[in-house]
Write a structure and sequence with these properties.
Length: about 425
């Protein structure tokens, strides 16, 4: 039986309860060598991981016998597919076999593979737009699972990942293994709003493998007052590209952010990572990002930048951009800035008859909207504007974006 306190659970105990496959055995061996994360673990230095893992948890049971309904979206409820499109080009099923990463820096990546049961695998075989909705319904539970997404060669795909939950005191340990084949173009956008600090805590580990001449655009939009962390481990092969954008808006006492490692393996690979952080009250933002260029990654182009706005003196930004480079033939840069709203801009707006609070809102929205408006899909832009409005204002004036068009006039200018 798995101990309810995760820091007392050995990988062997977990395997004995989880019908170990060869891949789970490999994951257990790696987890045994690196151990579960603690406050001394570098990637969790700014996030209170021990208080979560030291609690007593009950792993939520999975109802694999539940009928799968037809839907325009892939809906995953507590780690089980409960609805999916009636589309022959998308195969949704469960498998225990996967190309497991041998070097992911996050121990919880391996834990979710071991404890998460069968992997939900999605294969995209033609140009596609796909919505994936994660529903969390179990109160006071640990919910581990993995999703593997395989994109065939010469495919253009867009995936929108969102989360829905009305639960209390649950822990979600999951993530996506994404394999982008040669000459494919994939856009993955994640929208996660945590309005309740006592709701659920997501610990999401992503693993991206981008093959030669392939391109991945990843956008994460993390909003609200709850705690959560995402880790990203990405490998880029010859002439592969990753363009990664992160928008964080956090309030109250939230601890929220991104820990990432982009590894350039192939020649002429490119990565660009931009993080924008807006922190209110006593929130802590996290951007701990490493770009690593191997000896084989000649002529790499790698850029990384973090910007943070602290709305009051209690907010805190932990920004740690890093470069680890083993060759000379490349182009690379990194940077980080943290500050307050520009007083000169506030003064200019107030001199035009705008109140202080309204001027402040305008500058915050302009800062956030730069990333949202960089998305070329109108429906996804509107969804993200709606999510940001709800997180910032507690409400939104944008309601009809998923079902109609021509609503641009309703968006706050």
């Amino acid at each position: 039986m798995i101990p309810s306190n995760l820091n007392r659970a050995t990988p062997q105990m977990i395997l004995s309860e989880c019908n170990a496959s060869d891949e789970k055995q490999r994951a257990a061996e790696i987890l045994s060598s690196i151990g579960m994360p603690t406050k001394k673990y570098e990637q969790y230095r700014y996030f209170d991981i021990e208080s979560l893992l030291n609690r007593d948890w009950v792993i939520a049971p999975k109802d694999y016998d539940r009928d799968i309904e037809k839907s325009s979206k892939v809906i995953i409820t507590d780690g089980v597919v409960t609805a999916m499109p009636d589309d022959v080009d998308i195969v949704v099923g469960c498998s225990s076999a996967i190309d497991l990463s041998p070097s992911h820096f996050d121990p919880l990546y391996y834990f979710s593979h071991i404890a998460g049961g069968d992997i939900i695998s999605i294969r995209i075989k033609s140009d596609k737009k796909l919505d994936i909705v994660h529903k969390i319904t179990k109160n006071g539970a640990l919910i581990p699972y993995r999703v593997a997404i395989y994109v065939d060669s010469n495919i253009s795909a867009q995936i929108f990942e969102s989360f829905e939950a009305e639960v209390l005191d649950s822990l979600l340990i999951c993530g996506i293994d994404m394999f982008v084949s040669r000459d494919s173009r994939v856009k993955l956008y994640k929208d996660q709003t945590l309005n309740n600090s006592k709701g659920y805590t997501p610990l999401l580990s992503y693993r991206f493998k981008v093959d030669s001449n392939a391109e991945l655009n990843f956008g994460s939009f993390d909003l609200g007052s709850g705690n959560g962390l995402q880790t990203i481990d990405a490998s880029l092969h010859e002439n592969a590209t990753i363009d990664s954008k992160h928008l964080l808006y956090a309030g109250d006492n939230a601890q929220r952010g991104t820990v990432s490692r982009f590894v350039h393996i192939g020649k002429y690979s490119k990565s660009n990572q931009i993080a924008k952080n807006i922190l209110d009250n006593r929130a802590r933002g996290i951007f701990d990002a490493l770009i690593k260029v191997e000896n084989s990654g000649k002529y790499t182009k790698a850029h990384q930048n973090s910007k943070a706005i602290l709305l009051n003196s209690g907010a805190y930004m932990a920004s740690k951009p890093q470069l680890e480079i083993y060759i000379d033939d490349l182009e690379a840069s990194h940077g980080s800035t943290t500050g307050q709203l520009d007083e000169a801009q506030l003064f200019y707006l107030r001199s035009r008859g705008i109140s202080y609070e309204e001027a402040k809102k305008m500058l915050i929205l302009a800062f956030a909207n730069e990333l949202i408006d960089s998305i070329d899909d109108e429906i996804i832009r509107d969804r993200l504007h709606t999510s940001f409005d709800r997180a910032y204002y507690g409400d939104t004036k944008i309601e009809c974006m998923e079902t109609c068009h021509g609503c641009e006039d309703n968006i706050l200018s």
